[in-house]
Amino acid sequence: MNIKTLLFVCSAAAITSCSTAYRSGQTPDDVYYSPKRVIEEDSHQERNKENVKKENLEDREVRMAVYDRRWRDFDDDYNYRYDPYHYGYSYGYYYNPYYCHYPVYFNNIVIINPKNTVPRMTNLGSYNNPSYIVSSVKTGNGSWINNPRPYNNSNNNSSMIRRILTTTNSSNNNSYTPSNNSRSYTPSSSSSSNSGSSSSGSSGRSVSRPGRGN
Amino acid sequence: MQKIILIICMLISVSVYAQVPEDALRYSWFSQNGTARNMAIGGAMGSLGGDITATFINPAGIGFYKTGEVVITPSFLLNDNKANYRDNITSGKKNGFNFGPTGIILGSVSRRRPENSSAFSFAINQSANFNNTIRYNALNNYSSFSEQFAEEFAKSGYNINDALNTLSPLPYSSALGLYTYLIDTVTINGETVVRGAPEYLLDSGMAVRQDMYKKTGGGLYDFSFAFAGNNKDKFLWGISLGVPLVHYSSNTTFTESDTSTNAFNRFESFTYHDEFISNGIGFNLKLGAIFKPAEYFRLGLAVHTPTYMVLTETRTSNLTTNTETPTGAVQSLSISSREFTNNQEGETHYTQTSPWKAILSASYVFREIENVKKQRGFITADIEYVHHRGTRFRSDAEEQVDRDRDKPYYKALNNVVKDTYKGAFNFKVGGELKFNTIMGRLGFAYYGKPYKDDEFKANQMLLSGGLGYRNKGFFIDVTYVHKIIKDVSFPYRLEDRANTFATLKQKQGNIVATVGFKF
After folding, report:
1. pTM for the full model?
2. ∠ at Cα B369 (B66, B57), nearest 5°?
């Protein structure tokens, strides 16, 4: 909302400060035809432009060098190392006791409160269609085919019985049969109750679960 | 009988987790936002030019300008949503302000070659508006929201202590479910399995009542700089650098409750609340050309490179579960994901590359002459291809160990995006009739389905009409766009059961006004 408000204020200010050169006569429509822009320039501005063009570049360099000695460094004939006013200039930096122009590294950084950076997750397997290998009798070569994922969008769908879907290995039947195997609890890790594994490489603390009510 | 027989087994399913595939469509499947004039003609701007919207579609169109222009485009959006979930229809409304292309164009004619010109534009546009609410509810006798947690935890290979940890690997889902006993391990026929408490109800033939409420906000704000060249009004080319800023917020509340009067079926209700905010910045390039083979005719071609975005996401979830104890009493437990993310919001850093796009277009402009009184009108049409399956995600975590942890997740996610979505064609057509200073316009646009699955019906249709007035160096355009969006929404997904989804029908009214000055 703040971005929008700021944008409208800036745009309104820009529009109200505009002065149009098309108050009289026709207003061009650039979709159809765009005429050359009407630019009102007075003779004073024209004269200034001419003067700028005529200015000698060498004169400008001399004038700038008088104004600020650093412009003299651009002159190849001048060796600024012998300049008595040059002090502490090396590798692109002037000497500054408060500035170090190379990185400063600190060792033994301790992150006191690490963040959990686990991505927002979903079970990607739920997007995939079940696949089977189909083999040709003639050649014996197999090829994968996808079975469309089934959907259950009605409570009156009696043909879709509540069961866990798995595929069979039978040759001509790829129907689904009930099984609870896909939700077996078979943890591969074995951390103690005091220190769980960490998602970000550093160990967290265990969060104890309240007891079941009786 | 047949030359082939079915043998062997099921493909090993993908059992890893990552940023969700739906995030891919958020930044690619939305209708183009433009000035009131552009919206009135269906959003077609691939070959027409002469409008600041060309900065975001075909930057060569900026090349028509030899004048200067300042433009501002406010709009007001009215949302009216209907959802059909398991034969129950629910509706909701959400309105809000929006803005279209706002910026400046400067055109100039070459002094040395007066027949050539160039133009520069800087414009800001809210390309996509995420403000919306979706609500649906129904009875469900087939599956439970909690089963996705049970499935996730069973497949993860973690034990309960791993999950219940201040740096849990499953902090927003299974850890909450385990802590509040929405899911737990049980032994059935000597085998330990993970089950959701509502499953006992479903197994007995009863149904649970489900209610899903999702409120989203934010937008995709595109800052673009375009430069275009014009060679004798015959051939125009343009390039645009886009810097999109992303802000997306999502608040989801899902409630499930027992519909029976039985106080001993182990489950009464749960409420799961999930909140996340994505912020990011990106860049893209748009290249375009317009060719005029004959007077009045314009042909256009534009290519948009993929948008590379760097995103940061913060997330918090809460769960309250009411379970029924063996004595019939109700035990209520609540937990926040902050317990599992070290007492702070979880934070994820990732990059997302949105798909490339190509536009082919033609226009017929009746009377391209300077005298405004003799300009009569135009018709224009775009055909656009968007490669939705081209979205890619990648971890952008600060620590190498976290990037290595997430790498297989994002690789699997990218494969799912490739398998779930497809490239889609969009069509836009519109025209204008001009009567000196007054203009009338009509338009139509159709955005094709991005899903591969034939079961899903999804598309966007826009009907638009508008009026314009242009005089004394000033112009104003007003447009009304009626948009109908058909889409699907999954409250949850299960790998080992048939899934259920809601069909959405969203009607949007968009009132757009553009005010501009010529100089």
Report:
1. 0.80
2. 50
Cα distances (angstroms) measured from residue B128 to each of A95, B27, B34, B217, B453: 51, 8, 11, 11, 25
Rounded mean pLDDT, B252-256 = 96
Residues near B22 by beta carbon (within 8 Å), at least 6 away in sequence: none
Which pLDDT tens digit goes with each residue over B114-173?
888 999 999 999 998 888 888 999 999 999 999 999 999 998 889 999 899 898 999 999
What residue type is B387 in one-letter code? H
pLDDT of amino acid A175: 39
Average pLDDT, stretch B1-21?
40
Residue with tokens 């700021």: A6
The pLDDT score that the predictor gives to residue A196 is 34
Q: How far apart are CA A5 and CA B432, in angstroms?
A: 32
B439/B467 Cα distance (integer angstroms): 6
User: Which one, of A145, A148, A106, lies nearest residue A127 by Cα?
Assistant: A148
Q: Report the sign of the C-alpha dihedral through residues A199, A205, A206, A207, in that order.
A: negative
Torsion of CA B52, B58, B60, B61, to 10 degrees: -40
Whether the Cβ atoms of residue B248 and residue B280 lie closer than 8 Å to each other: no
Asked if B168's CB is within 8 angstroms of A199's CB, the reply is yes
Query: 3-class DSSP state for residue A96?
Result: coil
CB pairs under 8 A between A and B: 426
The stretch A176-188 carries a mean pLDDT of 63
Phi and psi, residue B222, nearest 5°: -105, 120
Tokens of A40: 């009102």
pLDDT digits (tens, 9 = 90+) for B40-64: 999 999 999 999 999 999 999 999 9
With a cut of 50, say whether residue B474 has pLDDT above it.
yes
pLDDT at position A64: 75
* Three-state secondary structure call for residue B430: strand
% of chain B with per-residue pLDDT over 90: 63
pLDDT of residue B10: 31
Asked if B401's CB is within 8 angstroms of A116's CB, the reply is: no
Q: Which of A2, A3, A41, A115 best tests the B interface by mutation, with the highest count of B CBs <10 A? A: A115
User: Would you state the pLDDT for residue A166?
Assistant: 57
Question: Which is it for strands B474-489 and B502-518: parallel, antiparallel or unpaired?
Answer: antiparallel
Gap between the Cα atoms of B357 and B119, Å rounded: 24
Neighbours of B486 (CB within 10 A): 15
Rounded CA-CA distance B380/B363 in Å is 4
Core vs surface per residue A170-181: b (16+ CB within 10 A) or e: eeeebebeeebe
- Residues of chain B contacting A165 with CB distance shorter than 8 Å: 496-498
Q: Which of B131, B144, B121 is nearest to B71 (CA)?
A: B121
The chain B residue lying nearest A15, using CA atoms, is B70
